[in-house]
Amino acid sequence: MQTSKKITEKVTWVGKVDWELTKFHGDELSTRKGSSYNSYLVRDKKVALIDTVWLPYDKEFVNNLKREINLDEIDYIIVNHAEIDHSGALPELMREIPNTPIYCTNNGKKIIQGHFHEDWNFVTVKTGDTLDLGESKFIFVEAPMLHWPDTMFTYMTGENILFSNDAFGQHYATESLFNDKVDQCELYGEAIKYYANILAPFSALVKRKINEVLEMELPVNLICTSHGAIWREDPLQIVHQYLEWADNYQENQITLVYDTMWNATRRMAEAIAEGIRSADPTVTVKLCNAAKDDKNDIVTEIFKSKAILAGSSTINNRYLSAMGAVLEMVKGMKFKNKKAAAFGSYGWSGESVKLLTADLKEAGFEVVNEGYRTMWMPDEDALKACREFGKQFAESL
């Protein structure tokens, strides 16, 4: 049984911490630190419930909510985002209180109806609309494509709370609830992974929407996300971090991503990395095996990098499928301001480098050279050439 937790005198967390979650969005996103589905009960003269939880926990959620409040006392339900991890418990809840109005964007209404095929009592809202609770009120702010078309923020006056749904969150299970009560390295590691793999394609919209909200000059004491820790200590730190991440982000890092059949391409990658470090000892160099390492972690490392090198041996006149999966993911992320080149080993046809180069260009990278390839297992001369290739690549940046 999940225990509710007081956030303020008026706001109670009534969500679910999911310690067992290892995959999200089907198999598209790894969540090795678990996650949480944060739902909030707001008690003023009127009572509102903000978001629900993922479908597998619908009955548990409603039963726990009954222990916290008589469901008939809930005046409003706010759906900031209709994705199933936030709206999944709605049908179970609406069976209990079927006439309670649901506040959401117009797109939110369409998506909820598309999910559940119910004609509940929807009240659609847009940016600037308000809902009076008594002493406090809600101000609604549409945030389309952060990260679905229906997304909105809900700001609570008096308490100065921004209920931000997916923005500023992390797939991070914690019973501690607040950002100042968790491991900061874990918190920021999961926050940047979340941004790189979910929100990065919408970076231009992220910048625009954050600046729009900041221009409203609303005081913010808490940012109550829908996943992971609530930002209580210096809550705007994550807002400013998002602005940095959304601005063609890069660190002084070069990442080599490769797959290999008989370790020839791996040996090339290691030699290229040596060459990079010889040219620039200050740069962080990371090597990722696309067939063995977590693909979301690889995407995060690419997001952090100023440049990447993509490597693969040739198979069936193509490159290895694990590299194809990574590059398909990266194409969708629409990363900007990053340079790249390709490398790989081959036996007789050797198309991988040319094809990798073409796909790097399609993914939006500035390709700095034609790449480097060598036949079979690289000998000492070939490894020396790899080191020189890495050195020249680093110098070209």
Explain what the structure shows.
35% of the residues lie in helices and 23% in strands. It is built from twelve helices and 24 strands. It has helices at 58-68, 84-87, 90-96, 106-116, 184-199, 203-215, 237-245, 264-279, 295-304, 321-333, 352-362, 380-396, and strands at 5-6, 11-13, 16-18, 23-24, 29-30, 35-37, 40-43, 47-50, 76-78, 102-104, 122-124, 130-132, 137-142, 152-156, 161-165, 222-225, 253-259, 284-289, 307-312, 314-315, 318-319, 339-346, 366-367, 372-375. The strands form six sheets. The protein has a seven-stranded mixed β-sheet. Strands 17, 18, 19, 22, 23 and 24 form a six-stranded parallel β-sheet that branches. It starts with a strand and ends with a helix.
Structure summary:
It contains twelve helices and 24 strands. It has helices at 58-68, 84-87, 90-96, 106-116, 184-199, 203-215, 237-245, 264-279, 295-304, 321-333, 352-362, 380-396; strands spanning 5-6, 11-13, 16-18, 23-24, 29-30, 35-37, 40-43, 47-50, 76-78, 102-104, 122-124, 130-132, 137-142, 152-156, 161-165, 222-225, 253-259, 284-289, 307-312, 314-315, 318-319, 339-346, 366-367, 372-375.
- The rough form would be described as elongated
The CATH superfamily name of the largest domain is Ribonuclease Z/Hydroxyacylglutathione hydrolase-like
% residues in beta strands: 15-25%
Give the rounded overall mean pLDDT.
Answer: 96
Task: State the separation between the terminal residues, measured CA to CA.
Answer: 54 Å
Q: Which stretches are poorly predicted, pLDDT < 50 over at least 5 residues?
A: none
Backbone CA Rg = 24 Å
- Fill in the CATH topology of the largest domain: Metallo-beta-lactamase, Chain A
CATH class identity of the largest domain = Alpha Beta
The overall strand count is 24
Question: How are the strands ordered across the major sheet?
Answer: 1-2-7-8-9-10-11
Q: What's the tally of helices?
A: 12
Q: Please outline the major beta sheet.
A: 7 strands, mixed
Counted up, domains total 2
